[in-house]
Amino acid sequence: MKRKSFRSRLQRLVPTLLVAIIFLGAWELGVHLLGIREFILPPPSSILSEFSEELQIFIGASGESILFSAARATLWSAVGGFVIGCGAGILTALVTSRWTIISEATMPFAIAANSVPIIAFAPIMNNWFGITNPASKMAIVAIIVFFPAMINTVRGLTLVDPGQLELMESWAASPARVLRTLRIPNALPFIFSALRVASSLSVIGAVVSEFFGGPRATLGVYITQEASGFNFASAWSAILMASLIGITFYLVVLLLERWLMPWHHSMSDSG
Amino acid sequence: MTTKVIEAREINKVFNPGREEQVIALQDIDLSVTSGEFVSLIGPSGCGKSTLLRLIADLIEPSTGELQVNGKSPHQARIDRDYGMVFQAATLLEWRNVRKNIELPLEIHGFARQERQEKAQAALELVELGSFGDHWPWQLSGGMQQRVAIARALVFQPSLLLMDEPFGALDEFTRERMNMELLRIWRETDTTILFVTHSIAEAIFLSSRVIVMSPRPGRITSVVDIDLPRPRAFETRARPRFHALVAEVREVLRDAHVLE
Rounded CA gap, B256 and B214, in Å? Predict the structure, then answer.
């Protein structure tokens, strides 16, 4: 189980970096050579310079960076909704899986609800909680992530190796014991794959629900306003910000998964 | 002193009784196993050998008949941890290292940490994996995983070991080595073993008695006493008597099939 050296890790990154450089280079060149106008597609250089300007304001503390305040607000909605929705989904799964009848009765509804475009409820949530209240965005995010979290957890709790169940029975283990020792650890990979999906979904859900209106300093509102004000590089810098938040969130969940399930990580590493 | 470990009288097991898909899994099974015996159940798929094992383990209940394990009901024997079980798949919990896997049954029965660790280590040494306690299951070969499963079954020091095709998934070479290992463990622990297998050679090599079963309905067609001397070794398989016994059991199995 030798740890991979820093050097070899770096070498594995080389092709990925090459692809990124070629992609950005082609974008930059294409925009200049084809004379694509900024409102169609700004070159990466102007998006980056817009982004770094805001970053300097943010770091320098000379006044407030709207982009970074917006990012903070959107991140708050995404993370809040993620925690509430996933928490409720996992809890519901734990309760319903305790009684097979309930979980069998509710699963079809959960699967159906999972295919509903929840984002369509954003205006309704704005009515319920108030358009400038972050709770209206959190509610959308929470509903979006609830169903995958619940469905996957139920699957993980019920798709247990029958041989392992028989062994637990042969040791006269109580149902609570089987849940704790067998079903929940068995569900962890399922739960984490739902959390990974939910981490991306929650940022998408937060930004898109902000398109339906919200406080000035949120990424969704920022993007709509900058775009309608013809500040396309600025709108794109907010898109870049949303992407960075989404990727970071995903990586945090991934790290949490590796930390909580060391056996799983090493297993996939060896294969 | 020899005592009856398993006593089965006129056991019948019917799955889905009264329905169209009714299956008579076992019919009129009489079986008696005394302590210290090594008994194998052999027969084609569907002959009910695994069902019989599960009845003894109290994982299912007989439809009719009387069954006792160590002079008690199978239920009581299960509560009293009178038997350990090993399946064809090692069924180790992948999120527990080898030591924690072996400690699991002790944990469920509320043994203190100190005692758990000592018993687990002793069981690991019994299967000659003393230095593998901290490994993850996936780091072990199939044969080693199965040895961990045996250690886990023996960690209670049960009087009876129930094994359902434990080496069926291993290659021939590993299987023969595991057979030797199992005989050594059997000698060292004084455990009674009931062993389900598909392999005639394996059954004869290991057992003091081979019980031949046939399917539809599952029943015992004959019992062959294995009079090969012990301790058995690799050379045992070369003895003329070994081959004679293999031929005899094969004959019985074929007759059972012809009867159908």
Answer: 6
